[in-house]
Amino acid sequence: MIVTIDGPAGAGKSSAARSLANRLGFRFLDTGAMYRAVVFAALEQGVELTDADALEQVAAQLRIELGDQSVLVNDQDVTRAIRTQAITSATRYAADHPGIRALLVDQQRAAAAGHECVTEGRDQGSVVFPDAECKVFLTASERTRGERRYHDLIARGEQVTLEEVLEKQRERDERDTTRAVGALIQSSDAVVLNTDGMSPDEVVDRLYEIVQQRR
Ligand code: C5P
Fold first, then answer.
1. Where in the sequence of the chain do the CATH 3.40.50.300 domains occur?
2. 179: number of CA atoms within 13 Å, CB side?
3. Which residues are CB-neighbours of 213 under 8 A, at least 6 positions away?
């Protein structure tokens, strides 16, 4: 069984999807981490993010390993390093690149092959796993999403204001929903879950129920 969880930034997808996968005993794929990892590696290698060909080369040669709690890139642990605000903003160079999307989509399908899997991103139900048995569109209001991300960043010691976070989130939402390939769309066969006012545990409980109804 494949469970896809798509939705906008800050809806709480990653932590909810990871907990759900643990509870179900399924493999977990954090596909946003893969786009982040490409940009992180390019910056480390001194590659210009605007050089589309060079960026694709970086992606093609990268070995990304998504662990339960960690992300390794060519054996280097980048779990925290790929979550900074700077990487978050720059990730669009990888996400907007059709060639890199094609590479990563292949890797995502390979990672799920032969496994029961919870996979999380923007295009999982629409493009990567159109035949998934269970599709969820996880969302929340702009304000709730911005506040969650703001508290996350502050807890990690970043210097940001809520206004800045909301502004960047609007830009990211715009990019995510309008990119030519792999744009965030709500599949007609996805269950919509709005997490406004729900605790993280309540979100996981509800997701678990949704999956059980489809097993
Ligand atoms: O989910 P996360 O915030 O880690 O994703 C980072 C960026 O990667 C997002 O802003 C989105 O643009 C992109 N992304 C994507 N397709 C996916 C997952 C993430 O384009 N499947």
1. 1-11+20-26+122-204, 29-115
2. 20
3. none
CATH number of 29-115: 3.40.50.300
Ligand 1 pocket, CB under 6 A: 9, 31-32, 35-36, 91-92, 95, 121-123, 172, 176, 182
Atom 9, ligand 1: which residue's CA is nearest?
A: 32
**Arithmetic mean of pLDDT, 178-187:** 93
What distance in angstroms lies between residue 159's CA and the mean position of ligand 1's atoms? Answer: 22
pLDDT digits (tens, 9 = 90+) for 80-94: 999 988 999 999 999
| Residue to probe by mutation, ligand 1, list 2, 4, 31, most atoms within 8 Å of CB | 31
Cα(67) to centroid of ligand 1, in Å? 18
pTM confidence score: 0.94
pLDDT tops 90 at residue 215: no
Q: In which band, very low, low, confident or very high, does the pLDDT at 68 lie, cut at 50, 70 and 90?
A: confident
CA dihedral 35, 180, 123, 138 (to 10 degrees): 100
For residue range 114-127, what is the model confidence (pLDDT) as tens digits? 999 999 999 999 99
**CATH number of this structure's domain 1-11+20-26+122-204:** 3.40.50.300
**Average pLDDT estimate for 145-159:** 92
Q: Can you say how many angstroms the Cα of residue 55 is from the centroid of all Cα atoms in its chain? A: 19
Greatest extent of the chain over all pairs of C-alpha atoms, in Å:
49
pLDDT of 67 = 86
- Distance from Cα 201 to the centre of ligand 1, integer Å: 23
